[in-house]
């Protein structure tokens, strides 16, 4: 049953400790991968060393990995790099010091003033804003609750149609674009982009009639609200959900929890791991909410896009094998349309390819599930730009740049879908 989201829910954080997690002495390194041997070594290290947090790692020779190293592992890590002759440089001397206080500010946003592009909104601020839009633009915007998080927060979905189309055909069968963001809690720029997408399609609808006339948009701006709030309040780099998972462990990696080749490769069976796949597929209410919406839209949804950060990638199935789907060229063409548009507009380059062949195999992802089970013909993950040396912590001054650049790519891909599936 679908019904409007009218209130935001405040819940106590479960399983946390008092105060924020300290990252004092944590260092971020950039490590060059100049041979296949070095690529393979870093991948093995990522899988075996749970204390090392790989922010960015792909399988492309010539690329750079980024690794956050806790103080206790610094000597060990440096010795490994020296033994493998891996060139590296320190990007952040002390990660704690780049945690800007204003990222955790409590100043509230007034929805009537429009969407701010210089602040990461908190969950309640997102809910207030989209509910305000739904009231102000009720002729073509609806907000529905598609599920609740473990801690009881409503997971909202915003559906947007062309105002003229909605009046004449409220249940239009136009192709649906389904976008979600924020399943990984620490990736704050992804929900910021989803909110900007909503804002552009609604408040600047007159400028985007080509996106609205041929498509219906369903956008879930925050798919993991518990983890997102926890990453603001307690632990900036928290990635998972917040449901207790095993003894003294909390959370599941939502993007390893989908029931398509679940738990086969690229996910951990250790409950405390950042990539823990859960004790069973769809163990998390957050992933079940996205699943149910995808299945509700089965046959209508033609484009599924999951927003993540960071790395400037456009990735498509498969994530569980290096083999490609039979009609991978169609997905590739849409992704390349997005990459091309961004490069022409800003000069930024995006790497396009299947998840396994660009990054590494990781089964249980939402894009594979959408493609294989929900029958969405164009399904992909978009990794947004990071914050330079700050990675998951782009300063608020970069939000506008990031979301506007990303919108160029999303717009181009959506138009490509509209041309081929209307």
TrEMBL record:
Its main location: secreted. It is found in: Secreted. Keywords: Carboxypeptidase, Disulfide bond, Hydrolase, Metal-binding, Metalloprotease, Protease, Secreted, Signal, Zinc. The active site is at residue 383. The keyword Mitochondrion does not apply. GO terms for biological process: proteolysis. CDD domains: M14_CP_A-B_like. Pfam families: Peptidase_M14, Propep_M14. GO terms for molecular function: metallocarboxypeptidase activity; zinc ion binding. One of its GO terms (cellular component) is extracellular space. Involved in the digestion of the blood meal. PANTHER family: FI02848P-RELATED, PROTEASE FAMILY M14 CARBOXYPEPTIDASE A,B. This is Peptidase M14 domain-containing protein. The lineage of its organism: Eukaryota, Metazoa, Ecdysozoa, Arthropoda, Hexapoda.
């Amino acid at each position: 049953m679908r019904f409007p989201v009218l209130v935001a829910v405040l819940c106590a954080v479960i399983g946390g400790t008092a105060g924020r997690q300290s990252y004092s002495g944590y260092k971020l390194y950039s490590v060059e991968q100049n041979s296949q041997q070095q690529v393979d070594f870093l991948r093995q290290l990522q899988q075996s060393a749970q204390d090392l947090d790989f922010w960015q790692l792909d399988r492309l020779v010539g690329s750079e990995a980024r690794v956050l190293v806790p103080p206790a592992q610094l000597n060990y890590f440096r010795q490994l790099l020296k033994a493998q002759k891996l060139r590296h440089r320190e990007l952040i001397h002390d990660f704690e010091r780049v945690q800007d206080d204003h990222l955790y500010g409590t100043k509230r946003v007034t929805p009537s003033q429009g969407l701010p592009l210089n602040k990461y909104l908190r969950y309640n601020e997102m809910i207030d804003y989209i509910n305000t839009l739904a009231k102000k633009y009720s002729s073509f915007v609806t907000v529905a609750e598609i599920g609740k998080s473990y801690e009881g927060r409503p997971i909202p979905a915003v559906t947007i149609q062309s105002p003229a189309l909605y009046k004449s055909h409220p249940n239009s069968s136009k192709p649906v674009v389904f976008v979600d963001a924020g399943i990984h809690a620490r990736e704050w720029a992804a929900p910021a982009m989803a909110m900007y997408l909503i804002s552009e399609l609604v408040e600047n609808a007159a400028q985007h009639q080509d996106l609205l006339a041929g498509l219906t948009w369903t956008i879930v701006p925050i798919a993991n609200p518990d983890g997102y709030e926890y990453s603001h309040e307690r632990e900036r780099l928290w990635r998972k959900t917040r449901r207790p998972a095993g003894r003294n462990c909390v959370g599941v990696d939502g993007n390893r929890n989908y029931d398509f080749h679940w738990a086969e490769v690229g996910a951990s069976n250790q409950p405390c791991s950042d990539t823990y796949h859960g004790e069973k597929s769809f163990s998390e209410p957050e992933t079940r909410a996205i699943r149910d919406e995808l299945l509700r839209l089965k046959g209508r949804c033609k484009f599924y896009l999951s927003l993540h950060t960071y790395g400037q990638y456009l990735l498509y199935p498969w994530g569980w094998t290096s083999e490609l789907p039979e009609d991978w060229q169609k997905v590739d063409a849409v992704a390349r349309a997005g990459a091309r548009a961004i490069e022409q507009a800003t000069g930024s380059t995006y790497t396009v390819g299947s998840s396994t062949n660009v990054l590494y195999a990781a089964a249980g992802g939402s894009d594979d599930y959408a493609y294989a089970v929900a029958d969405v013909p164009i399904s992909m993950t978009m990794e947004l730009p990071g914050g330079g040396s700050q990675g998951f912590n782009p300063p608020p001054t970069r939000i506008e740049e990031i979301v506007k650049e990303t919108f160029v790519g999303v717009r181009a891909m959506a138009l490509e879908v509209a041309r081929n599936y209307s």
